[in-house]
Amino acid sequence: MPDTPRRSRIWFRRTATMIGALAAVALLAGCTGDEEAAPHDEGAGEDEPLVMLRTATCECCGAHGEHLEAAGHEVRERIVDDPNLEAGVPNGLGSCHVTLAGDHAVVGHIPAEVFAELAEEDPAVDGIALPGMPAGSPGMPGTQEEPWEFRAFSDGRPGEVFAVG
Question: 97 - beta bridge partners?
Answer without folding.
Answer: 54
